[in-house]
């Protein structure tokens, strides 16, 4: 009987060791122990890190934060606003049934106040009172050294100014102005809603110039508020103005009709009863006066209804807290900067000797 040889295969492969946190921690402790042998070098790096952090606090200019808190009270709106106004005169309130929302309702205010149009209009207001010739945009560019950089740049090569109230700029000037707007929008402007259940909003502006922060914060809200109120009430305001002109015109015409009617009645007393013309003139004048008075009364009624609707539709933006000088100053403490710098420098040095050095040996 033939037997087949049995071949045994010897494996040259070794099993990988199972991963163990205990082994990993042991290796790190060994690396840390090795790194601590270079405590002098670690101390030098830590001191250098602390000095660098301290130098940064001395070089970095402080900033100032202006905070403005406001609340938006939405007006009663909806398709039945005119009906609500008329019902309001009779003692009923239908405005709450119509619901509705506005531009500043909810979280829309967060985007509205960051509109490039509003930011641009705010930057082109005077730096100071209305007589100041320097705009907020010019002051911003000077504070951050942008004017000098632009003058030295090969693409600009001159001093760029943004006059107060100017609407049209060249392509280059408009590009530089939008650069300022983007810097403010991304780094220095913050709008938040502290409590989602309440209608309170907080507007923060942080800048190196204390007065700039205050003025920009206040004027941005005013420009946005004026736009909001004008947008909400434009249609009703135009209607009230139209009805007011109509009422003034009819009032003057009614006065003339009244004088004419009195003259016709006076002539009727002295007229010959055989003639019918004086009687007809007096009756026609009286009828026209009555008709004119009726039309005038309807116009006045519609005018008052429109005024009531305008009051109901006009929203209110109430400022709760205004930014007051001196503003909050943002500056890193020298002691904290020194300690944080030393800690960061020491940690980097320990990591270097614990990880990189053992691999080279």
What share of residues is helical?
Answer: 55-70%
Portion of residues in beta strands equals: 5-15%
What's the CATH C level of the largest domain? Answer: Alpha Beta
Name the average pLDDT: 74
CATH architecture of the largest domain: 2-Layer Sandwich
| Structural classification | alpha+beta
Shape: elongated
Number of domains: 2
- Biggest beta sheet summary: 5 strands, antiparallel
Contiguous low-pLDDT stretches (5 residues minimum) are 6-16, 77-101
Distance between the termini: 63 Å
How do the SSEs run, as a string of H and E? HHEHHHHHHHEEHHEEH
Textual characterization of the structure:
- The chain is of the alpha+beta class.
- It has two domains: 21-59 and 333-360, no CATH class; 63-330, Bacterial polysaccharide co-polymerase-like, CATH 3.30.1890.
- It is 61% helix and 9% strand.
- The protein has twelve helices and five strands.
- The protein has helices at 21-35, 39-59, 81-89, 95-98, 108-112, 116-123, 136-143, 146-152, 171-188, 210-270, 277-313, 334-360; strands at 63-73, 189-192, 200-207, 316-321, 328-330.
- Strands 1, 2, 3, 4 and 5 form a five-stranded antiparallel β-sheet that branches.
- Helix 2 (39-59) packs antiparallel against helix 12 (334-360).
- The longest helix is centred in the middle third of the chain and has 61 residues, at 210-270.
- The chain is elongated.
